[in-house]
Amino acid sequence: MKIQDMTQIAFGAALIASIGFIEIPIGPVPITLQTLAIMTIAGIFGARKGFLAVIVYLLLGLIGLPVLSGQGGLAPFVGPTVGYLIAFPIAALFIGWFSERYRSIPALIGYNFLFGLGLVYLLGSIGLEIVLGMSFIDALKVNIPFLFGDALKAVLAAILAVKISQNVQVRRSLAS
Predict the structure, then answer these.
(1) Which residue ranges does UniProt annotate as crossing the membrane (predicted)?
(2) In the predicted model, what is the mean pLDDT of residues 96-105?
(3) How sure is the predictor about 55, in pLDDT bands with cuts at 50, 70 and 90?
(4) Which domains are present in the chain?
């Protein structure tokens, strides 16, 4: 792995961690900007680096750094957020994989909705069902307050990822 790859992965993890500190507690799962960062990073860096950035971020939380909505250690991985945390790297992998092949704002919005929201809500709801003993339907309903904001994040992440990627490509072509 090249130094540039490791730097991008570290930058991605740091961005997710720093933006994750912004939160609004509204129930068992707080509103955060983590998904915005994850979708953007995956859209820019692709599957491998996006996935690894999320894994590094989660490992930072697991070793005790308070990067998971202000928490660290094992608690977030055995509490109500476990399904969402498991979904993050999987979503980054899929968003990144598709963005490497079909990079356009409309396509990336679709991937963000399908994987960044749909997959994350699905696995997050399964986690809530298991940890809190809720019915799956009740666990799905927990996501309702997040829908509008997450939809905005999915669109914004797609726009940012495509525009940043285009700027990087332009600068590379000018430099060569």
Answers:
(1) 6-29, 50-69, 81-99, 111-137, 143-162
(2) 94
(3) very high
(4) 3-175 (1.10.1760.20)
